[in-house]
Write a structure and sequence with these properties.
The chain is an alpha+beta fold. It has one domain. 50% of the residues lie in helices and 21% in strands. It has a two-stranded antiparallel sheet. Strand 1 and strand 2 form a beta hairpin. The radius of gyration is 22 Å and the shape is elongated. Belongs to the flagella basal body rod proteins family. One of its GO terms (cellular component) is bacterial-type flagellum basal body. Its main location: other.
């Protein structure tokens, strides 16, 4: 099927898939904010061509670790402390992750709205063809 309504549905579904993955990454980061040595995960997006539906859609390009250093905390009794007694905390910034999760949620809702409108247009078209 090669029409603009199906292309809209395909693009919106891909957008929802990417935003749900983005929410998952932000959730993983938030759940490990207190894990010593944890490195924040980041992701990039890419535009790809869906050859079957002939539509450009968004996809996850890469998931990588943030190489910035976490804060060093002096705690010689901690099992992960180095020889000088310092433990490296995670490099996750809770505010950044919450903002990213909120943005992903809103983008998901926007794609869902597009998906719903396109399916409604399909229903209307089918109803017109029946009459």
């Amino acid at each position: 099927m090669d029409n603009s309504i199906s292309k809209s549905i395909t693009a919106a579904a891909a957008g929802m898939n990417v935003q749900s993955f983005r929410l998952r990454v932000a959730s993983e980061n938030l759940s490990n904010v207190d894990t010593h040595g944890y490195q924040r995960k980041m992701m990039t997006f890419a535009q790809e061509m869906d050859q079957i539906n002939n539509v450009n859609r968004v996809a996850v390009d890469q998931v990588m670790l943030d190489q910035s250093a976490g804060e060093q905390i002096y705690d010689p009794s901690h099992p992960l402390a180095d020889a000088s007694g310092f433990v490296v905390s995670s490099n996750v910034d809770m505010m950044i992750e919450l903002a990213d999760a909120r943005e992903a949620g809103r983008s998901y809702e926007a794609n869902l709205s597009t998906f719903r409108q396109a399916t409604q247009m399909y229903r209307s078209l089918i109803d017109l063809l029946r009459d």
